[in-house]
Design a protein that fits this description.
The chain has helices spanning 9-21, 35-44, 87-101, 119-129, 138-145, 163-169, 181-186, 188-196, and strands at residues 54-57, 62-64, 74-75, 77-78, 107-108, 115-118, 151-152, 157-158, 176-179. With 205 residues, it is an alpha/beta fold. The strands form four sheets. A three-stranded mixed sheet has the order 2-9-8. The protein has a two-stranded antiparallel ribbon with strand order 1-6. A two-stranded parallel ribbon has the order 3-7. The longest helix has 15 residues, at 87-101.
Length: 205
């Protein structure tokens, strides 16, 4: 998934890191990921004929930091109760309540790193969930329905406003990073990413 707009240096470097660190045949780009569009994108994945049955899902601000043969599975905690004052919080509460009511786990898989998905499982997930928008918690619904397990770790995203606090929690040997617009410009971790990946990827014009 990639945000709207022509200027996206983060996306360029995300693609460069992908090419350098993970074996992949082709890339599909879906744009302008507002919550409703994001939900529609997930529902569309099984209908993309050229997309492989198992595929890697990632956003435009995820960066690989080392070569790997498989994508690790991670979660950051359990889904906590949320006061539904926004679509995001409403989605979190709906997914948590639905998972608990159907006997599934309630792990929070909303991590800023790639995730391997299966088209058939996505179709089945939405068949069971229905037409109600999820508002951004598709990863948690999928991960718990199919008990993909994984390791509990801090998220690797460094956000503006909490940059020092978040960065202090990160393992400096970790294999992923994720930015927002301000942290991409200001943090030394992302200067490192830009220095690592200066060669354009095969997907750049």
């Amino acid at each position: 998934m990639v945000r709207a707009g022509n200027h996206n240096d983060e996306f360029r470097h995300s693609l460069r890191s992908l090419q350098a660190c993970f074996e992949i045949d082709q890339v599909f780009v879906l744009g302008d990921p507002k919550w409703t569009i994001l939900d529609k994108a997930w529902r569309t994945f099984p209908e993309i004929e050229q997309l492989s049955t198992d595929f890697v899902y990632m956003n435009d601000d995820f960066y690989f930091l080392e070569r790997m043969d498989s994508i690790p599975v991670r979660y950051k905690s359990d889904l906590t109760d949320a006061v539904p004052i926004s679509n995001y919080q409403m989605g979190k509460q709906m997914v948590k309540d639905w998972l608990a009511a159907h006997g599934f786990g309630i792990r929070n898989y909303e991590m800023h790193l790639p995730m391997v998905l299966n088209k058939g499982r996505i179709s089945n997930m939405y068949h069971n969930w229905g037409v109600v928008p999820i508002y951004g918690f598709q990863r948690s619904l999928y991960g718990n329905m199919y008990a993909i397990r994984g390791d509990i770790t801090p998220d690797c995203k460094i956000r503006d406003g909490e940059m020092d606090e978040t960065a202090a929690l990160l393992d400096p040997t970790d294999c992923f990073l994720s930015s927002d617009t301000i942290s991409w410009l200001r943090r030394p971790e992302f200067i490192r990413v830009r220095d690592m990946y200066v060669t354009p990827s095969k997907w750049e014009t």
